[in-house]
Design a protein that fits this description.
Layout lengths: L9 H8 L5 H11 L10 E3 L3 E2 L9 E2 L2 E5 L4 E7 L6 H14 L14 E7 L13 E8 L4 E13 L13 H11 L13 H8 L8 H103 L4 H8 L3 H9 L2
Parallel strand pairs: 5-6, 6-8
Antiparallel strand pairs: 1-4, 2-3, 4-5, 7-8
């Protein structure tokens, strides 16, 4: 059995941060998360985490943790173990409650105290992000001028799986809180880098062995639910990864099919050009053959006519010299003509 409570279980988070005895730990954590705002939290009051609807038909909201600072700022902290397709919309919906609750009857001038919605996520918003970040801050902005529209509403997303530092690499208190949130249930001893008063006090109150029997039963029930959620999320991730791989392979197949189709078209075009060229060469050769055959036939006809004329001259008693002069035939041709008399 592990030594420390798993902080991301429903029971564990509320036990570690959601009661008056743990307010010092929560204040320390919130100050590190909200440090860029520059306003230090000195005290908090826990508010009712279950907010009823405005009418019996309206949906109630149940937060993991809801508190108010000494100067009136309101903070919702949500632990999200699984990715939800409308996760951002859910955070927007939650933010409406602490904003609406500040309204006053009469001549109110709409001066609002800041509202923060902090999400501790046990998953990555975008698994394919080439630049994974641990913390992201979102506010309303003028999209044309790229300037802040209001600082009264802030969403802070902590993607815990993106935190990779080891115990020896911890530098800031923010690092140390992230380390405890992501490694607490696996610790067997306390690293030197977190042996400071606020963390030692925190660790002294989070041992499983210190829980009452009822608390242990509640914790292990919560832990089993957490492990089931993790198993479901891992299965979803594998399916999503397989789907992305299938989509990638399909795109590659389509790309290869298009490439092969283009290559076949190129080869077909080239073949058509070669066939056309061969056809032109064949037509030219055929025309030349016909022309030559025609010329040869004509010459042969003329020769036969002259030979017949020469034989008729010989029959009439003309001399060879006279026949040669009249027909233009050679002596050899005339000799051949005389043989056929």
């Amino acid at each position: 059995m592990h030594k420390y409570i798993h902080p991301l279980t429903d029971f564990g988070f509320k036990k570690l941060f959601g009661n008056a005895s743990s307010s010092e730990s929560l204040i320390s954590l919130l100050n590190e998360v909200l440090r860029p705002d520059g306003e230090v939290i000195t005290g908090i009051t826990f508010l009712n985490a279950e907010q009823p609807g405005h009418s019996p038909e309206d949906r109630a909201s149940v937060f993991d943790l809801y508190c108010q600072t000494a100067d009136g700022r309101r903070i919702i902290v949500e632990v999200q173990r699984q990715h939800h397709p409308n996760f951002a919309h859910r955070m927007l919906y939650y933010s409406a409650w602490p904003l609406h609750q500040q309204g006053k009857k009469g001549g109110w001038d709409f001066q609002l105290k800041a509202v923060y919605v902090i999400a501790l996520m046990d998953f990555r918003l975008n698994p394919d992000d080439p630049d994974p970040r641990v913390i992201s801050r979102v506010r309303l902005m003028d999209t044309e001028r790229k300037t802040q529209f209001s600082d009264r509403l802030t969403f802070v997303y902590l993607e815990l799986p993106n935190f990779k530092k080891t115990a020896d690499e911890l530098e800031t208190d923010f690092d140390k809180w992230l380390f405890l949130l992501t490694r607490l249930d696996r610790l067997t001893s306390i690293p030197k880098t977190v042996q400071e008063r606020v963390f030692m006090k925190f660790l002294s109150e989070v041992e499983v062995a210190q829980l009452s029997e009822l608390e242990q039963n509640n914790y292990f029930f919560s832990l089993n639910r957490y492990r089931t959620d993790v198993s479901i999320e891992e299965h979803r991730k594998r399916e999503a990864k397989e789907h992305r791989q299938q989509v990638k392979e399909h795109k590659q197949q389509v790309k290869e099919h298009k490439r092969r189709e283009k290559e076949l078209q190129r080869q077909a075009h080239k073949l058509q050009q070669e066939l056309a060229e061969r056809q032109r060469a064949f037509d030219g050769a055929l025309m030349t053959t016909k022309t030559e055959a025609t010329a040869e036939g004509k010459a042969e006809g003329e020769l036969n006519a002259k030979m017949q004329f020469a034989r008729s001259l010989y029959a009439k008693g003309f001399s060879t010299d006279m026949v040669m002069e009249l027909t233009g035939l050679s002596s050899e041709q005339l000799q051949h003509a005389r043989q056929k008399l």
